[in-house]
Amino acid sequence: MISADYFDKFKCKCGQCRSVCCGGWGITVSDEEYFRLLGLDCPADLRSILDCALAVVDDPRPERYAMMKPSYTGKCRLINDEGLCSLQLACGEEVLPAVCRMYPRSVTGTHAGCSASCERVVELLMREKPLTFSAPLPEPMASYVNALQRREKPLKERIAELLPDVLPRGLSDSYYGLLCAYTAAMAEASERFAETVDEAVRGYGGKEEALYREIEAFDRRFPEAENRYENLIVNRMFLTDFPGDDIKTALCGIVCEYALLRFASAGCETEEGFVDAAASLYRFIGHTNFNKNSRVAIERCGAYSADGLSALLRL
Question: What total of structural domains would you count in the chain?
Fold first, then answer.
């Protein structure tokens, strides 16, 4: 198993986390976990919370049998006022559902890393040095990662150079025009994306120059940000066993990931602001079929080509 160099350094921030990992998410549990939690010997106040929190899903399967219903605040009902898990505090870590014990870790037979949807993981990747691994990466992932980590050129040029040999040539578009069309197409598949990213993109309608100025201001404040983008992208490549069985779709995903990172950075004035923006974005990127959805969206925009996608790399 190959591990990312930060893997053993990860430690949950617990109550110090600004955006708890279970906030706004529908956390599912297996049938075994569901019935175990129903019969768990625990304090009466916790028992009443668990009884309200657990609900069998509409199409139950053994691996996805029930869901932890969030409270009216959008958070898991088990999170207390200090941002800590009441279940773990009362009964220990061993009683937690597997997803709660493991997140944001991703451990398979081939790799061990962490999702950047967790703000602590983003903080670990906000550094100058490139992401490294405990052993050589398999091909062809290794060649693509090496290409993206050659810092003699700007990151957008490194990404663009991967496209012509794989994707066809075609018409390009303006950066903002394609960004609007792409996010609108993606929004149709995700209400959360529509209410966050797409709504924010459309907020610049008719005043695109303001967006460009904000991105330029961010670059001046954080000249090292490009290395952060690189580490975030390489981290997801590692977690998803890039390129999988479809190199064209995987490269389309990288371009769209970079474009959304650039957009999400606009207006960030502090380190914490960047961490929050990146983690929020990766809650969508890392927990959906992002590459496939992005390819479908880009095809609908008529920009599925090396030239078309390059429009998203212009800033």
Answer: 2
